[in-house]
Design a protein that fits this description.
This protein has three helices and no strands. It is mainly alpha-helical. Helices cover 49% and strands 0% of the residues. The longest helix has 14 residues, at 2-15. It has helices spanning 2-15, 22-32, 59-71.
Amino acid sequence: MIHATAAALVVWTVAAGDATSDAARLTSVQFLLPLQADDGGFRPSPADPNTGAAQPGTLRATFGALRAVKYFGGTVPE
């Protein structure tokens, strides 16, 4: 369910294309960057608000996050 929600957010934002405002692009990048794990990869979803447990980074989530950050004009800290 969480994966579908995150994917829908990215698809919706990308589908808007040129109609996407700078504020929406910045908001998308600000959502994605905190998903970066300590090992440099990206988590597929935010930490569970009930338990605070965060998933480890995955290759699939990392590729998707890096691509989205690039398209939205952001940069990933090393």
